[in-house]
Design brief:
40% of the residues lie in helices and 14% in strands. The longest helix is centred in the middle third of the chain and has 22 residues, at 121-142. The chain has a single domain, classed as NADH Oxidase. It is globular. The protein has helices spanning 4-7, 13-21, 36-46, 66-72, 81-85, 103-106, 113-119, 121-142, 155-162, 197-200, and strands at residues 58-63, 89-96, 146-150, 172-181. By secondary structure, the chain is of the alpha+beta class. It starts with a helix and ends with a helix.
C-alpha cells in the first residue's frame, strides 16, 4: 500500500510522455495480440477512477473476434472500417441507463442513493460514463497499449446489434468506440495545435 508521501509523488517525464505528451491516436496496427489478461487488468484500473457517488455507469464490450467485428462493421462509417477491423480489440464504450440499480451495492451507506441517481439518470449516466471512457484511454496507455478513440458510427445500429435483444444488456447504450492494440505508427497526422492556457483556462 502506498503511503501518503509516495502517493503524491509526480510521475516522471517518461510516464507523462507515454500517457499524454507523446501519445497519439492510432489508425494502423501491428499483429501483436492483446490478451484477455491484459483486458482484465485494463478494466481493473478503469474501475478505480472516481465517479459521482461511485455510480460507475460505464459498460465495456471488448470485441476481439472476427465474428464480433463483422457484427460491428455495417454500423461504421466507411472511413472507420479498415482501422477497426485490423485493430486487435475494439471496445464499445457504453453506459447502462439503469445504472442506478447498482447503487445499493456501490454506495451502500446511503439509502437514498438509488433514487437520487434515478432522478438524474440521463445526466449522471452519460457524464460519468464518458469520464470512465476517458479513464480507459489513459489506463490503456499506462499499460503500454495504443488507442484509437472514435465516433463515426451509428449508435442506434450498434445498440440494436449488441444490446437490444440481450436481456442482460438491454438497458445499455453506446457512447463511443475505442480501438486498442499496438500501433504501427502508419497513417498518423502531424500533431495538431492545442489551445494555450490563456485561451482555454483562467484562474480566479
Amino acid at each position: 500500500m502506498l503511503d501518503a508521501s509516495s502517493a503524491s509523488t509526480p510521475l516522471n517525464d517518461d510516464s507523462l510522455d507515454q500517457i499524454f505528451r507523446e501519445a497519439r491516436t492510432h489508425y494502423a496496427w501491428t499483429d501483436t495480440p492483446v490478451s484477455t489478461e491484459q483486458l482484465k487488468a485494463l478494466y481493473d484500473l478503469v474501475k478505480m477512477g472516481p465517479t459521482s457517488m461511485n455510480n460507475s455507469p460505464a459498460r465495456f464490450v471488448f470485441l476481439t473476434s472476427h465474428a464480433a467485428k463483422d457484427r460491428l462493421k455495417p454500423h461504421l462509417m466507411p472511413g472507420n472500417v479498415e482501422k477497426t477491423l485490423t485493430a486487435p480489440v475494439t471496445v464499445i464504450v457504453a453506459w447502462d441507463q439503469a445504472f442506478y440499480e447498482q447503487m445499493p451495492k456501490l454506495f451502500p451507506h446511503s439509502e437514498g442513493a438509488r433514487d437520487t441517481m434515478k432522478k438524474t439518470a440521463e445526466t449522471n449516466g452519460y457524464r460519468n460514463g464518458t469520464l470512465q471512457g476517458a479513464y480507459l484511454i489513459l489506463a490503456a496507455r499506462s499499460l503500454g497499449l495504443d488507442v484509437g478513440p472514435m465516433s463515426g458510427f451509428s449508435i442506434d445500429g450498434v445498440d440494436q446489434e449488441f444490446f437490444a435483444n440481450d436481456p442482460l444488456r438491454s438497458s445499455w447504450t453506446t457512447n463511443f468506440l475505442v480501438n486498442l492494440g499496438y500501433g504501427s505508427g502508419e497513417n498518423q497526422f502531424p500533431r495538431l495545435p492545442r489551445l494555450s492556457f490563456d485561451e482555454a483556462a483562467t484562474i480566479l
